[in-house]
Amino acid sequence: MAIITSRDGNAPVRITVQGGMTIYEAAEFKAHLLAALDTGAALELDLGEVDEADSAGVQLMLLARREAARTGVALHVARLAPAVDEALDRWGLRAAFAAAPLH
């Protein structure tokens, strides 16, 4: 898995995940999410290049959503790979991560 965190000027912090979003990568992904949320800037998740997702990956998406709401940070999911879509469907959470900004 590769996690790329970027920010261009005043644009949202963008986290791009490439590869797996599973229990094996959870600690690394969590660290990136929390660091991005700590900036106070809007956060954009690009999950379009994820090739595997399990319940740990979904739990981290829920963590990001909860912490963004708690701290008032805007969260937007830019792209969802089929693997993430399937994981969200499995737990009935697809609507919670629609393309609209989450607050």
Detailed description of the structure:
There is one protein chain. By secondary structure, the chain is of the alpha/beta class. It has a domain of 68 residues: 2-Layer Sandwich (Transcription Regulator spoIIAA), CATH 3.30.750.24. The protein is 38% helix and 30% strand. It has 3 helices and 4 strands; from the N terminus they run E-E-H-E-H-E-H. A 4-stranded mixed β-sheet has the order 1-2-3-4. The termini are far apart. The model has no long low-confidence stretch (mean pLDDT 91).
Task: Describe the structure using short key phrases.
103 residues, four-stranded mixed β-sheet, alpha/beta, 3 helices, single chain, Transcription Regulator spoIIAA, 38% helix
Question: What's a quick, concise take on this entry?
Answer:
The protein has helices at 26-38, 55-71, 82-90; strands at residues 2-6, 13-21, 43-53, 75-80. With 103 residues, the protein is α/β, with parallel strands linked by helices. A four-stranded mixed sheet has the order 1-2-3-4.
Note the main sheet: 4 strands, mixed
The DSSP helix count reads 3
Helical amount among residues, as a percent range?
Answer: 25-40%
Beta strand count: 4
What is the alpha-carbon Rg in Å? 12 Å
Oligomer: single chain
Uncertain segments: none
Annotated CATH topology of one domain: Transcription Regulator spoIIAA
Inertia-based shape:
globular
Question: End-to-end span in angstroms?
Answer: 27 Å
CATH superfamily of one domain: STAS domain
Percent strand equals 25-35%
- Overall CATH architecture of one domain: 2-Layer Sandwich
> Tell me, what is the CATH class of one domain?
Alpha Beta
Element order: H for helix, E for strand? EEHEHEH
Strand order of the largest sheet: 1-2-3-4
User: Structural class, judged by helices and strands?
Assistant: alpha/beta
Rounded mean pLDDT is 91
